[in-house]
Inverse folding.
């Protein structure tokens, strides 16, 4: 993200407020027009009998991701070789530590500490993975049982495991969007942040599906490999390619100043607006759970909050031990702590369905992202004297 004209925008500053309004709006929509969200979710591309890609959600998610990807200048990646230690620390935190600590913290809180509050017998109905159309009703796959739901084969899994799946998808998605803003507000090294955004975007193409499949399997959830790979292709690779080529064409046609000052400014509200539309649809399905168990969001938010703080402090303290300067330490910690909730929401919707507990868990990640990350920005600014 370019330096000129930057700052926390109106949409970004009040993102938590917008999410809360979407929760209320989605619940009201679900009560007034109960068939609307279901009909939209039914507009899908099928593989066999499995609805794999929700077309309305795919459109929303593309417009969530494209404004992020078009900001990335991949020419900056060559600068990574000049400061390898911050890059290596960030990669280690994002891909070797964070996915596994997220799994451990989430399963402890959701599967043990809060299990009685969530409901020991509470179940969630999620999509069958692609290629599972021949699974027999009543057959058991991992922790799930195939059932008939509204005339369609679905998978019934424990509700807490569905929440766990959403947390897993958040934990394997390092932020490549708003982290540009967090690094800027913390007065960090913009070049390092841009390099890590580019590297993480490319790394996700390889590791997101592998780590997601592995951890979902450990959590006794069927591993929809086809859908995972398709999710990465649609929600990461497609906007990444579109952003790369459109950036080149626009700069060549209009110039870099016009691109930075005009085009990016027009895109600022697009990503968050698409996110909010998606959330309204999601909560039109999940309103009953929120109304009947209003503390559900709290049970999911606690492990996410602890995970965010754990990764931040691990990375931040490691940066101090390794004698980084502050400008490299701050964005390294921010990138590790924050989540790419756009990809997590897209993937959970594709894998498990718009009405799944997994999708609800990823939305809780959106809900706490802004206040928690602003808290960590303040911590960075106040501890700048720790670093040379």
């Amino acid at each position: 993200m370019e330096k000129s004209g930057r700052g926390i925008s109106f949409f970004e500053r009040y993102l938590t407020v917008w999410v809360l309004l979407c929760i209320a709006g989605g619940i009201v929509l679900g009560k007034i027009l109960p068939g609307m969200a279901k009909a939209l979710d039914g507009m899908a591309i099928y593989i066999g009998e499995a609805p794999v890609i929700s077309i309305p959600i795919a459109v929303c998610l593309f417009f969530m991701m494209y404004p992020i990807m078009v900001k990335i200048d991949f020419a900056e990646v060559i600068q990574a070789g000049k400061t390898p230690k911050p890059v290596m620390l960030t990669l280690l935190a994002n891909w070797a530590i964070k996915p596994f600590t997220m799994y451990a913290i989430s399963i402890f809180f959701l599967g043990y500490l809060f299990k009685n509050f969530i409901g020991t017998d509470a179940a969630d109905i999620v999509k069958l993975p692609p290629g599972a159309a021949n699974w027999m009703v009543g057959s058991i796959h991992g922790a799930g049982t195939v059932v008939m739901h509204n005339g369609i084969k679905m998978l019934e899994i424990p509700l807490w495991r569905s929440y766990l799946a959403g947390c897993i998808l958040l934990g394997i998605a390092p932020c490549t969007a708003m982290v540009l803003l967090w690094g800027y507000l913390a007065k960090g090294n913009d070049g390092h942040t841009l390099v890590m955004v580019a590297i993480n975007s490319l790394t996700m193409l390889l590791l997101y599906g592998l780590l997601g499949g592995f951890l979902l399997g450990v959590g006794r959830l069927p591993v929809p490999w086809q859908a995972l790979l398709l999710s990465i292709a649609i929600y990461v690779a497609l906007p990444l390619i579109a952003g790369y080529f459109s950036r080149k064409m626009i700069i060549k046609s209009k110039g870099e100043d016009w691109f930075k000052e005009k085009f990016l400014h027009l895109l600022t509200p697009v990503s968050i607006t698409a996110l909010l539309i998606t959330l309204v649809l999601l909560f039109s399905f999940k309103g009953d759970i929120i109304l009947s168990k209003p503390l559900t969001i709290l049970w999911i938010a606690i492990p996410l909050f602890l995970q965010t703080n754990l990764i931040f402090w691990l990375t931040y303290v490691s940066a101090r031990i390794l004698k980084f300067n502050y400008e490299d330490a701050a964005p390294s910690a921010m990138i590790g702590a924050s989540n790419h909730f756009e990809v997590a929401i897209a993937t959970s919707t594709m894998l498990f369905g718009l009405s799944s507990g997994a999708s609800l868990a990823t939305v809780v990640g959106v809900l706490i992202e802004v206040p928690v990350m602003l808290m960590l920005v303040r911590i960075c600014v106040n501890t700048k004297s720790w670093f040379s």
In short: The chain has a mean pLDDT of 80. The longest strand covers residues 152-158. The chain has one domain: 10-386.
